[in-house]
Amino acid sequence: MIEHKTLTMDEVETGGYYKNCHLMAGEDGDSLRFSDVTFERCEFQQQVFEDSEWLDCHFVNIHFANATFDHSVFYRCTFHTCQLTGTNFYHNHWKNTKVIDSKANYVNINDSTIETCTFTDTNLIESSFQSVKIKKGLKFVRCDMNDADFLDTRLKDVDFSKSYFDSLRVSIEQLKGAIISPLQASVFIQFLGVQISDD
Asked: What is the pLDDT along the chain (199 residues), one digit of tens a residue?
């Protein structure tokens, strides 16, 4: 484990565990590629991580609010207790990736491909999953998803049943196959223009 060091991103090594480190931008300007690295309570100087690739990486208590990860790849990664408010993951590819106990309000994952991913105990208020291609399921567990946006996203095998929201933005023609709880049925039925009587 490497602790309390100031390093450039170029110095991060495969298999490394970095804790309470200050990570400065690299000098070569190439796209970032990392494998089997854990970052815990590290401070990243840069905010732009476009075209980056993260394989088997784990982020613990990292502040990525308003950072940009456009056109990036996350395979078998975990975000745990991270600040992801307003973070841009536009046109990403996520596979077997988990977001746990994090703040991700206003996060943007539009136009991405998501395969077998889970969000758990995470705030996703007004998050955006527009035009996302979902493969082999997407699960939300105990997440606050009020006003999350799934327009133009096919919701087959998307499991909302253990999370909560008063409203979502969805495309009616893309609802088939979504997994919801009985309590959520009243929210989804409104999309069909049906009124529920209290009598």
From this structure: 999 999 999 999 999 999 999 999 877 656 799 999 999 999 999 999 999 999 999 999 999 999 999 999 999 999 999 999 999 999 999 999 999 999 999 999 999 999 999 999 999 999 999 999 999 889 999 999 999 999 999 999 999 999 999 888 988 888 889 999 988 887 777 766 666 666 6
114: left (phi over 0), alpha (psi -120 to 50) or beta: beta
The secondary structure element, H or E, covering residue 6 is strand 6-8
Round to whole Å and give the CA distance between 52 and 92. Answer: 10
**Confidence (pTM):** 0.91
CA distance 50 to 53: 9
Q: Report yes or no: 126 and 149 within 8 Å, Cβ to Cβ.
A: yes
Written as one string, the DSSP assignment of 133-196 is: EEEEEEEEEEEE-TTEEETT---TTEEEEEEE-S-EEE-GGG-TT-B--GGGHHHHHHTTTPPP
